[in-house]
Amino acid sequence: MVDNRYATALVIACVLSLLATVYLSVAVGTQYWYQYTSPTVRSEANASELRVLREEFVEGEFDEKTYSDSLFRLNGTVGLWWRCLQVPTDTHWYKEPDPKMVMECVSFSLSQQFTPKYKEPGNHNSGEDIIRTYLWRCQFLLPLVSLGLVVLGGVVGFCACLCRSLSPTLGIGLLHLLAGLCSLATVCCFLAGLDLLHRVSVLPEQVDGTLGWSLYLALISSPLNMMAAALLVWAARSHSKSYYRMTAYRVA
Predict the structure, then answer these.
(1) So what CATH class is 4-245?
(2) CA neighbor of 197 nearest in space, from 83, 110, 102
(3) Distance between CA 40 and CA 22 in Å, rounded?
(4) β-strand 82-88 against 77-78: which pairing, if any?
(5) For residue 225, which of 160, 142, 109, 167 has the smallest C-alpha distance?
(6) Which of 166, 171, 172, 177 minimizes the C-alpha distance to 239?
(7) Tens of pLDDT along the chain (252 residues)?
(8) What is the pTM of this model?
(9) Is the C-alpha dihedral spanning 105, 109, 113, 115 positive or negative?
């Protein structure tokens, strides 16, 4: 028999866990982790240069310097699995003061996610930048680990419900705690890697960057998982103490 307090805590923990999973899943699948605001097109020469960047971005080979320059100068957005540009539909970009903009996106393939980063982006002779390489790899692996831990916790919890046992609740809480830490580490790795990229890349003038809503969703999912973990651990510990007291009373 489960006390109403423990049942309420378990229900709230399940809701928090579900919200955290939805938020993190949306964050991983969208590209608005970081957004660049670029200056407008000034002349035909400038427009021709930007067209070349756009073509290399969409059709060219994968190169960090190429796609980074395109993101900087074409109002780019970047996520864990996507990189996108905002470009006008009209070929004569500079002739319209406010052209209609469309978004063109290219996904990172799995092999590209494991591509090493170099101390000078685009220069393979400059040597591998170990820190940026592993920050990049961790930022897309950690959210998958986080989602996997939550799914594992859900499976264990479902089996516990079938068996009508609260014994695995402590373990489920620890799984959610690890999931929350992985979500938080994902955001930290992304921001650290982005800061290091900006240090080794030359940002054009009048280019500003802002954090996107996808990153905030991933950030919110972390405390939600931790709150769910705290409720699960509390329910497991409190129920265990009550069970031991009841057992001792019956023996006495």
Answers:
(1) mainly alpha
(2) 83
(3) 36
(4) antiparallel
(5) 142
(6) 166
(7) 445 677 788 889 889 999 999 999 999 999 999 999 877 765 555 567 677 777 777 777 788 888 888 888 888 899 999 888 887 766 555 555 566 777 888 888 888 888 888 888 877 888 888 999 999 999 999 999 999 999 999 888 888 777 776 677 888 899 999 999 999 999 999 999 999 998 888 788 888 889 999 999 999 999 999 999 999 888 877 655 444 343 433 433
(8) 0.84
(9) negative
Q: How far is CA 249 from the centre of its chain?
A: 50
